Amino acid sequence: MSKSLFRRKSLSTILKDAREGLTDAHGTGSLHRVLKVKDLTAMGIAAVIGAGIFSTIGEASFHGGPGVSVLFIITAITCGFSALCYAEFASRVPVSGSAYTYSYVTFGELAAWVIGWSLILEYAIGNIAVAISWSGYFNNLLSGIGLPLPGWLISNYDNATPETLAAAPHIGSIPVIVNLPAFLVVVFITWLAYVGIQESKRSANFMVAFKILVILFVIVLGAFYVNTDNWHPFMPNGFSGVLKGVSAVFFAYIGFDAVSTTAEECTNPQRDLPRGMFYSLIICTILYILISLVLTGMVPFTELKVSDPLAFVFDRVNLKWVSYIISVSAVIATTTVLLVFQIGQPRIWMSMSRDGLLPKRFSKIHPRFKTPSFATIITGILVGVPALFLNLTIVTDLTSIGTLFAFILVCGGVLLLPREESNTQRFQLPYINGRWIVPGLIVLFIILFHTQIQEKWSFAGGWDVWKHNIPFYLFTIVAILITVFSFLRKLSLIPVLGLLSCFYLMTEMGLKNWIVFAIWLLTGLVIYFSYSYRNSKLSTAEA
């Protein structure tokens, strides 16, 4: 059994299955190949610039001050390492499935299932947070024209005020509190994803162009109201304060990897997928840094703990008309994020279904629209129904930790791929010998952060204190092992840095999030051993 848990799917088999569309095995067809570099770049920007830049950036700025711009750079570098690893996989394995398929090739079936299950956190569960954020901006938009929705239609039970509870209709003694706009936008986006990638592409390209113009307008206009005194001190709560915004800032970057799920709909995936990921990541990073500097320059960072920071800062300088434009842009921006994630999740399920890990219906391709129809509908239900009742904070933290975990396995998977000769027809991750560089960087890290490391390894506070550092202890063990292997086996530098940097960001998300994530993974393992293990195509072939 232990051997079968790590059975791997060969690259040739994966490419053959995708090329044939598995018509005979599953009754499915192929997808439309219509996406080019500009479309993939637009999809990447659509996924990244959304709820993060319009909402969670305020929370991060409150903790880190102007120094949060440094955190955006750190996070972008971390994502950059991961993006290089994704690009290597995407060029070698140009099929739908993203990190799930990549893990199947390198780590085996069990790891692939775990990654597929984790990606539900990134795409489906993450979209719940985006839908909730969309609802807030949409109501702000309605309020601007004097048509606000009643509180009980845009709330959940966690954040409903006593006034909202009193005004809500009741079923018996239970008040009815729902987030109706969040549900309705998920229904609309699911329909758009269902009817075809061509229609989704056109919608995404138009909305991306609009929101970039608005963001550039906000940056230029806001620059005239920046008071540089607000940038001092640059890190008012130290580097630890900056790192408190990790979850919020990383959530702002989630989505660039969703581009890889559209591999089977690209005209030239081996060339265009890497370019689309890199272009979108670079553009978004520049915009994030500029926005964070403008925000913290216009008002003191202590005032930015609000749900709509961009609109808030322009209200403070008496430019309320700009707030209305921002609300329009926020609605459009979060709509594009919803669209890209609703496209990505069904394609991962489609790949898992092709491998037998999910029922065959998940890989069914609509004969007319050429989309994974059943998987798209299930994704809409999984996102839309919880969006009616959940709050934003819970799903934001879960989404970030699940995504980082996927990034770690992708970076680790690249280390297991056999090296190939130079190929000018596709992207290749440059090999940099990490034998001496990795140990040197670890030593430099210890020197720079020795105070924080000593605090984490101090057991003076007892269980109540050091239990929260358990994730850091795990990181320390992994860092030591990776350093040893880098020296002995001359591991490639870029995937090693991607793995370690993602793991370190995970340690900053708190023990509570790790516990919830562990419960999520255990639930996935129960499903795997009760259904997927027996129904896997590889298992059937062995039998």
Structure, described:
The chain has 543 residues and is an all-alpha fold. It has one domain (2-417): Up-down Bundle (Amino acid/polyamine transporter I). 70% of the residues lie in helices and 1% in strands. It is built from 25 helices and two strands. Strands 1-2 form a two-stranded antiparallel ribbon. Strand 1 (170-171) and strand 2 (174-175) form a beta hairpin. The longest helix is centred in the N-terminal third of the chain and has 36 residues, at 109-144.
Strands ordered across the widest β-sheet? 1-2
Radius of gyration (Å):
23 Å
Low confidence ranges: 22-28
Q: Please, how many helices?
A: 25
Going by helix content, strand content and strand pairing, the class is mainly alpha
CATH superfamily: Amino acid/polyamine transporter I
Tell me the distance between the termini. 13 Å
CATH architecture group name: Up-down Bundle
What's the SSE pattern? HHHHHHHHHEEHHHHHHHHHHHHHHHH
How many beta-strand elements?
2
Q: Classify the oligomer.
A: single chain
Shape: globular
Largest sheet: 2 strands, antiparallel
Overall pLDDT, averaged?
81
What is the share of helical residues? 55-70%
CATH class division:
Mainly Alpha
List the domain count as a whole number.
Answer: 1
**Strand content range:** under 5%
Topology-level CATH name: Amino acid/polyamine transporter I
